[in-house]
Amino acid sequence: MRAPGVVHHGTRRRRAAYRRAVLSGAEVLVTVGVVLLLLVAHQLWWTNRQARHGAERKVQALEREWGTPAPGSDSGAESGGDTGVGSGTGGTGGGDEGAGKGGAGRSGRDSPSGSAVNSSQKRPRWSQAYAVLRIPRLSLRVPVAEGVSKAGVLNKGYVGHYKGTQQPGQAGNFALAGHRNTHGEPFRYLPRLRRGDTITVETKAAVYTYTVDRTLSQTSARDVGVIRPVPRSLVRPSYGYTQPGYYITLTTCTPEYTSRYRMAVWGTLTSMRPR
Q1: Tell me, what DSSP letter sits at residue 96?
Q2: pTM of the full predicted structure?
Q3: What is d(CA 132, CA 130) in angstroms, rounded to the nearest whole number?
Q4: Beta bridge partners of 261
Q5: Which of 17, 71, 104, 163 shows a CA-CA span of 20 to 30 A to 249?
Q6: Which of helix, strand or coil describes residue 32?
Q7: Which CATH superfamily is domain 51-274 in?
């Protein structure tokens, strides 16, 4: 008969092994948690800082190449996902934004009075930054590069030009994509744009001004209709245009921190001036 209160060596060893296992598991969990926090910090802070800095340097380089900065070039780039259409864009909007409410305005159908809109621009090289997009309401100044690849364009904090769409000032649709979150997030505040806001696109040859007049707040990521020459949602056909014109389309992901849907902002060309 064992004496009461006596703990044998085997029991103590099992308890010690159990404590070591618990402590080891806790250490692993803490380590995993720290790594995850570092990854989140890298995505939400470091990629933004790095991309914004690089994008601003590229804007300054383009302005030096062109000779003289355009008015408003002292505006800082403000924070603005994965965005592409065909990976898609578009969405719902207010009732006054549907195509049935008048289609494209005169400035959308016709080139601005007295302006010779460039219709034969040289095609930029793939991933080449060749223009600067400015949106005063968003305090945004960001390079525009050819293509919408993540590594070559979007993750650098640039806005990407959809291959196959028109160049600035040309008849048709000048369509762009930009991240809404991380990597500079130039289009983070795209939903703040309102009808009548201006968007300028500067190239070596000219400065083009577009005026926002329609917004699609959500559509499928594969809604390629919003970047066609006459932009019109294939998912929500009441949103878009019915006549040829001079358009700009800005696309990004929605809701924030997801890439499930796309949104689009449309505008029409209202003025052009040579540099």
Answers
A1: G
A2: 0.74
A3: 7
A4: 220, 254
A5: 71
A6: helix
A7: Sortase (2.40.260.10)
How far, in Å, CA of 233 to CA of 241, rounded? 9
**Is the omega angle on the peptide bond into residue 255 within 30 degrees of 0, that is, cis?**
yes
Catalytic residue among 134, 141, 232, 262: 262
pLDDT tens per residue, the chain (275 residues)? 555 555 566 777 777 777 777 676 766 665 656 555 545 554 556 788 899 999 999 999 999 999 865 554 444 333 334 456 765 433 333 333 333 333 334 445 566 654 445 545 678 999 999 999 999 999 999 999 999 999 999 999 999 999 999 999 999 999 999 999 999 999 999 999 999 999 999 999 999 999 999 999 999 999 999 999 999 999 999 999 999 999 999 999 999 989 899 999 999 999 999 98
What is the Cα–Cα distance from 264 to 119, expressed in whole angstroms?
24
Give the closest residue to 132 by CA, choosing from 189, 208, 185: 208
Structure tokens at 133: 């997009």
Q: C-alpha angle 157/161/165, rounded to 5°?
A: 170
Catalytic site includes residue 253: yes
Based on the residue annotation, tell me whether 179 is a catalytic residue of this protein.
Answer: yes
Of the listed 179, 180, 214, 236, which one is catalytic?
A: 179
Active site residue 260: no
